[in-house]
UniProtKB/TrEMBL annotation:
InterPro entries: Cyt_b561_bac/Ni-Hgenase, Di-haem_cyt_TM, Hydrogenase_cytochrome. Keywords: Cell membrane, Membrane, Transmembrane, Transmembrane helix. It comes from the Bacteria. Coiled coil: none annotated. PANTHER family: CYTOCHROME YDHU-RELATED (PTHR30485:SF1), NI/FE-HYDROGENASE 1 B-TYPE CYTOCHROME SUBUNIT (PTHR30485). This is Cytochrome b/b6 domain-containing protein.
Length: 285
């Protein structure tokens, strides 16, 4: 399973096989799908940048809205309105520089959407194609993880793990990441986060997206009702997508801070480098 590579002082490097092929392939397909879905989803959201609760829209009482004010003779202003409270977001949300640099009234800026110009029909084509690819890939990943018991082995936290939550948070805040044998397994924060994303956020984003489809609504009207109505499903879809976006940002930051080359190599080739001493070496080589 592991090959000695080099000796550095009293510690030596060994390569372990961390990620099987199925995990690596589904990881990269998921990465592409989520990126396209987020960008094309913001394009779709821009067509009506407001969220509601229930079955139908209540235009006078949105839960969240991104608005643009274009007063005559004055500079355009953008606002984020959440539960009736407005915050000026000019330059990012509501009003932002267009492709030509001039102020443009649109909820999310052009550099965050796919395509960059306003085109709802094209954004929907991108979104729906990659939504089905994402659903198929997620099904493969979850099936593989359950059938091979990989999820149980790698993601289920033990009592010992849970007792170290505080210490793990403190280590992360100090940017202290393991590189020895303890790096072989996910820490408790990784286990809890990956479990929440794979078992909660990603399926929730998928199901809430299906609940907004007219075809699915006609075939299974109970699905949007299960989520509280089509508008509630749209709100859930948006919030779960934003949570996924936040997860991706934090995930990339942790990858960069904990050893980008080693982490990238592992998710491409499957091989991950550990640095162990003779005292640590219990059958690694």
């Amino acid at each position: 399973m592991a090959d000695p590579q080099e000796r550095t002082g009293r510690r030596r490097r060994i390569d372990i096989y961390r990620h099987p092929v199925a995990v690596r392939v589904t990881h990269w397909v998921n990465a592409i799908c989520v990126g396209v879905l987020l960008a094309s989803g913001l394009q779709i959201f821009n067509a009506h940048p407001a969220l509601y609760l229930g079955q139908s829209s209540n235009f006078s009482r949105p839960v969240l809205a991104i608005t643009s004010d274009l007063p005559a003779g004055r500079a355009a202003r953008g606002h984020l309105r959440l539960l009736g409270v407005a915050v000026q977001t000019t330059g990012v949300l509501g009003v932002s520089p267009g492709a030509d640099g001039s102020p443009t009234a649109r909820a999310f800026p052009h550099w965050m959407t796919l395509p960059g110009f306003q085109d709802l029909a094209l954004g929907r084509r991108w979104h729906f194609f990659f939504a089905w690819l994402f659903a198929a890939n997620l099904t493969v990943l979850i099936s593989y993880g359950v059938l091979t018991r990989r999820f149980r082995r790698t993601l289920a936290p033990t009592r010992s793990d849970l007792s170290r939550i505080g210490a793990s948070i403190w280590d992360h805040l100090r940017l202290r990441f393991p590189h020895g044998p303890e790096a072989w397994r996910y820490n408790v924060l990784q286990k809890l986060t990956y479990s929440a994303v794979l078992g909660g956020l990603l399926p929730l984003m998928l199901v809430s997206g299906l609940a907004m489809s007219p075809a699915i609504d006609a075939a299974a009207p109970w699905l949007p009702m299960l989520l509280g109505g089509r508008q509630t499903a749209r709100t859930i879809h948006f919030l779960s997508a934003m949570s996924i976006g936040l997860f991706v940002a934090v995930h990339l930051a942790m990858v960069a801070l904990s050893g980008p080359l080693n982490n990238l190599r592992a998710i491409i080739t499957g091989r991950y480098a550990l640095y162990v001493s003779d005292e640590d070496d219990h059958g690694w080589s």
